[in-house]
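Structure ticket #2291
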Amino acid sequence: MRSTTSGRRRRPGHPLKQPSSAGLSILPYGKPRRGMQKFRLVHCEAASALVRSREKQWTSAKVARLKLWLQPHEATSRPSAALLDGLLHRANKELGHANSFSEARQRARSHLSESRKWHGRLDRDELLGTPGFVVVRKLVDRATCEVLRAAGETFLFRRAKATNRCKVLANVDGVVKVHADFHDEEATLRSVARSRLATTAGVDAAWARVVTHVARRAGRQPSRSNDEALTVAVAGMAAQHWHLDSTASLSYVVALNDGVLATEVLQLDEPWLDSMRCRSQKRRDAFMRRAWAAADGGDAASSPLTLSAGDVIYFYSHRLHRAPPPPSRGKRRYTLFGAFCAEGASMKEPTFAPH
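Resolution: structure written out below.
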C-alpha cells in the first residue's frame, strides 16, 4: 500500500510518521543506537504533501542542538527537498563536529566490544606502529579510476585559449581549497565532492564501486564512508603541514593515476596512542607533546611510497600525517579521499602544531 502523503512505498523498519505540527520539524527513525540517531528534516503544510530531506545520522546530542538551530527558520515558506538538504548542510557546519571526543570514544569502545577490532580487517599493528598505514595494491580496477580522473580533470581544469600549454586550474563553483582557511591562504589541495561530478555519465556508478571495494577490504559498511572528495594537487600549491583530522578514525586515499606519492605518516619510536580509546587526558597530552616534538625534528616522515592507479592507502586519522609535496611542473596527482566516520567529522578544522 502506498502512502497518500509522499507517494513512496514505506521502507521496512522505517514507518512513515506525520509531523505533529505544520512547518519545519525533525522526523526521527527508530531509537538511538550507540548514541547515534537517524532522522530526516521535514516540512509540512495543511493540505499539502510532506517534503523530506535525505536521511541523516547524527549524535543524539547534535540532533537536540539542531532543534534550537532550526527555530529562526520555522517560518520558511514551503521548501523543496533540495532546500532542506542545503539547510542541513549549513546546520552541520555551524553546529560543529557531529561527535564530541567523549562520544567518539564511547562509540569506539562499544564497537570494540562487539568486533574486538575497531579497524575491521586491517592490521592494527601496522596502523598504530610501523609503517603507520596499510597499502592494498590494485584494489580498484584502472578503468574505474580513469572514469573518475577524467571527470575530475574536466571539472577542475580548462584549456587556455591563447596557447597550447597545459591546462590551468579553473576557479569554478564547488571547488574547495583544502586547509587554506585553517593555516594560510594557499591551498594544499583542491577537492570536489561526489555530488558535483555525479551528473557526468558513469561517475556515480564508478564512485560507488570504489567505495564498495575500499569498505569491504577494511571490513566496514560502504554506507559508513563519508566526507568523500576527488582531490588534485599541481605544481605551485602549498606544502601541507603535519595535522590531525578531527576525530575521524580510519581514512583512505585511492590513487587515480600512476606515480602518486602516498600520504606521509609520522613515525615514532613507540606505537601511536589510540587516542579515540584512551581515557586519560594527561596521558594523551604527554604523548602528543612527544609527537609534535618528533614532527618538528623533520626526520619523522614515513619512507616515500609511490602508488599506481587503483592502489589504496589506509591510515589512522588521529595519527599525525600530511599530504606529500606538490608534484613537479607539468605533473598532477589525482586521488579520492574518504573516511569511515560521522558525516563532516574529517572536514572540521584540523589540528596543527601548537604554538
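Closing remark: Residues 281-297 form the longest helix (17 residues).
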